[in-house]
Amino acid sequence: MKSWIGSIGRLRVAMLAVAVGCIVLVPAATAAAKKKNRIGVGQAQVAKPGPPRAMYWGAWIGKGLTGTDAPYDMSGVTKFQNMVGKPLSLVEWSLPFQDCTVSPCHTFPFPSAQMTDVRQYGAIPFMSWGSSSLSQNPDVTQQPNFQLSDIISGRYDSLIRSWAIAARDWGHPFFLRFNWEMNGYWFPWGTGVNGNQTGEYVPAWKHVHDIFTSVGATNATWVWCPYVDPFTKQNIRALYPGDDYVDWTCLDGYNWGPQSPANPIPWRTFKLLYSATYKRVADRIAPDKPMIFAEMASSDYGGDKPAWIATMFRQLLRDYPQVRGLIWFDVNDRNAHWELEGNPGAISAFSNGISHPRYLPNGFGGISTSPIPRP
């Protein structure tokens, strides 16, 4: 389906968060935003009880604000909070198993330093970890050394165990979103691509989860995250590992717009994108699990991005009671205009929405409960 193709680039763009670049200045925050923004890197507040149905919130922050992805440059988090007028309680980024653009392949270690930086800021780390590699092949789904059967057979047990031990030794709660958007065909762990067979996703997930449990890495909160299926064409229930293996459920979804240069499709409202899949997960698949929207954004191609954001916040408050967190994808991915910066109306709409007291700021530097509870 052509409408799903645009997600492929995120594996390549977001997982290469290593190079130091030039700082890009952004417009200063308004006086009101500066007044609200008193919390910066290393100045975490103490968490206080939130209002009814409080929510974590945050962003996946690309190179646009400083030249380097967060959390490899935490000043990007500060710039984002200045832009929207509120400190974040979640910071998301991603890593694959290996970098195979060099020979031999290089394994990415557990990012303890970045985890600590996020925690010292007062946010909860949200790590998206994929069983894949950075590759020179432009088709990122063609990775025959990273099939789901390889995970099940134990080929990467040593790597997974080293990550689990490092996570355990780091010792603090974090969200772990493993092999997300598995119902799509744009990642090498997707069903039906890269030689993966129907029925392999769940045992692969359980295998990785069991290794973490076996070494005592219970500080990982497991997040199961399909892509939205607005027209109910997929059996996502078959991809659910079960309540014993999932702590939070999750959805990703993007509004590309009809004039998007990378993936032109009709303008999708927030409700059209999310409502049907939310109800399936929240009502039937995992009714007892809290949910987070871990990648969400709208372009401004062919529609009103500020209005889309404002409507999103109104509908979240009213129609999605199981959602207890959201993360905005603030990354320049194939010129899709996901970022807030550069669109004053979008910044204003997001700032207004996130100003509600239910969206909690960075008061989680001392969180110790795992799995991470509903706020």
Description:
This protein has ten helices and nine strands. It has helices at 8-14, 31-36, 75-84, 112-121, 148-153, 157-170, 201-214, 270-285, 305-319, 344-354; strands at residues 56-61, 90-99, 106-107, 124-134, 174-178, 220-224, 248-255, 291-298, 323-330. The chain has an eight-stranded parallel barrel with strand order 1-2-4-5-6-7-8-9, surrounded by seven helices. The longest helix is centred in the last third of the chain and has 16 residues, at 270-285. The two termini are 37 Å apart.
Number of domains: 1
Query: Major sheet: size, sense and barrel closure?
Result: 8 strands, parallel, barrel
CATH superfamily: Glycosidases
Average pLDDT? 89
Spell out the key features of this protein.
8-stranded parallel β-barrel, 9 strands, 375 residues, globular, alpha/beta, disordered N terminus, 10 helices
Quick summary:
This protein is an alpha/beta fold and 375 residues long. The chain has helices at 8-14, 31-36, 75-84, 112-121, 148-153, 157-170, 201-214, 270-285, 305-319, 344-354, and strands at residues 56-61, 90-99, 106-107, 124-134, 174-178, 220-224, 248-255, 291-298, 323-330. The protein has a single domain (2-354), classed as Glycosidases (TIM Barrel, Alpha-Beta Barrel).
